[in-house]
Design a protein that fits this description.
single chain; alpha/beta; eleven-stranded mixed sheet; three-stranded mixed sheet; about 35% helix; disordered N terminus
């Protein structure tokens, strides 16, 4: 009799525990309830994949501000990554990176949380992927290991290429602000607004949001710091290998490229050019973009980006938030080292919580050799192994990844990467000492990284920026 009672009690405990587990993976959003899953039992992080944060940007919504998502009543299963924006297969051809199915219906985000109901709301980290604003997606970045250290990690998709940055005079005419393009940036802002409305339900604090990104994602970070529309949506920023020292075209010039595209597409004489372009399939658009050898990126539209972000930073008009930025030792100095220096220097004038890093770690390649600190090499270290790279970490690599990810988390938590358990003091960056922290075979501090080279490049860039500003003022 006793053993039977014990079995019944054990069964009840099993049912209760499994019911609790199911409940603990369900949470509400402002559009409807969603259910995630625990993929990694050891990390014990709940993952919600493919949550729509805006309506599908298809049909009449193509080349439009992201629209509100249609709500649902039943619990929505969010256990698979959402589709990714149409793009070339360059990531698979060059790096063997598999993409989810392609579709214009791509405005999804993913949430990794260690606790839906923490005693105190957790810091939030919103990841913006790279890919030159023409490729990439969020599914290749696993936030599990960062989340396990005490943060809610959000990874987002946004429109890229012709779908995210196309401009045309007719599109500007129909827009309430008289602009076109920068749809990918509008998506990022929309995703950050979703975070503000919903992240409390995932255990995160809407008052402690850090945006971080690499390459084009790092450029997006400084763009958002320079955009008035992103005010109040984040509180700290991390730009990894930001290459934003570019003289983006003004809207009017970019619209001219849009007219060339419409001609190549064969719709330039249509009664309604925009409607004719929206009736084309995404495959036709991509094929024409490739054949016409056109590429659309951010534009200075006077609204989302009032002026070149470099000018915004030099004028001290960017959002005044703690800022961490850096580059890798085997990247082009002109493309990344000087960019990091410029944005860090000018930002340090308005915020003393500015930090610079230099990543020089050589990682084992699994074949007896080592890979240099090339573009994107820091990613598996920041994510502590949870990202797209094939890992062959030895003990030193694992230790470095543990330290880097802990510093990123600490910065997201407090705006300062230093704190309990951090093995080295990271000095802030300023105009005089230009201190930085190097992540390599050893973690060590330094000052004035490649200063002479960077100053010569910056002088050249400044001359180009002045000419660009004069040209823009003449056009206006």
């Amino acid at each position: 009799m006793t053993s039977r009672i014990q079995l019944i009690v054990a069964g009840l405990i099993f049912c209760v525990c499994n019911t609790a587990l199911a409940v603990d993976t369900i949470t509400p959003t402002d559009a409807g309830p969603v259910e995630g899953l625990i993929e990694n039992k050891q990390a014990n992080v709940i993952v919600f994949k493919g949550i729509p944060y805006a309506a599908p940007p298809v049909g009449a919504n193509r080349w439009r501000d992201p629209q509100p998502v249609e709500s649902w009543q039943e619990v929505r299963s969010c256990k698979k990554f959402g589709r990714c924006c149409p793009q070339s297969d360059v990531l698979e051809r060059m790096y063997g990176i598999k993409l989810p199915p392609l579709s214009e219906d791509c405005l999804y985000l993913n949430v990794f949380t260690p606790n839906l109901h923490p005693d105190k709301p957790l810091p939030v980290m919103v990841w913006i992927h790279g890919g030159g604003f023409s490729t990439g997606n969020s599914a290749n970045y696993d936030g599990t290991y960062l989340a396990a250290q005490g943060a809610v990690v959000v990874t987002i998709n946004y429109r890229v290429g012709i779908f995210g940055f196309f401009t045309h005079p007719a599109l500007s005419k129909e827009d309430p602000h008289g602009i076109s393009g920068n749809y990918g940036m509008r998506d990022m802002i929309c995703a950050l607004q979703w975070v503000q409305r919903n992240i409390t339900n995932f255990g995160g604090s809407p008052d402690n949001v850090t945006i971080f990104g690499q390459s084009a994602g790092g450029t997006a970070v400084v763009n958002l710091m320079a955009s008035p529309l992103a005010a109040g949506l984040f509180h700290k920023a991390i730009a990894q290998s930001n290459g934003a020292y570019n003289l983006w075209p003004h809207l009017k010039k970019s619209e001219g490229y849009g007219e060339i595209f419409a001609t190549a597409l064969g719709v330039d004489n249509a009664d309604d050019v925009v409607q004719a372009m929206r009736e084309k399939s995404w495959e036709e658009l991509m094929a024409t973009e490739t054949e016409a050898k056109l590429r659309f990126n951010e534009v200075i539209d006077g609204h989302i980006l009032p002026t070149n972000p470099v000018a915004t930073f030099k004028e001290g008009k960017q959002h005044n938030v703690p800022f961490l930025a850096g580059s890798n030792s085997d990247e082009s100095d002109r493309g990344f080292t000087v960019c990091t220096r410029v944005f860090a220097r000018w930002h340090s004038k308005i915020n003393p919580n500015t930090y610079r890093y230099y990543f020089s770690q050589n990682t084992p390649d699994g074949e007896g050799g080592r890979k240099g600190a090339v573009h994107a090499a820091e990613l598996p270290y920041v994510f502590n192994g949870g990202t797209l790279a094939a890992l062959h970490f030895d003990d030193q690599c694992k230790s470095l990844a543990k330290t880097m990810s802990a510093m990123w988390i600490q910065f997201a938590r407090s705006g300062n990467p230093n704190g309990p358990g951090i093995p080295i003091q990271w000095p802030p960056y300023n105009f005089v000492e230009e201190a930085y922290l190097e992540f390599g075979q050893e973690i060590q501090t330094g000052t004035r990284l490649k200063r002479d080279v960077c100053e010569k490049m910056e002088a050249s860039f400044d001359q180009g920026l002045a000419q660009w500003q004069q040209k823009v003022s003449t056009q206006n």
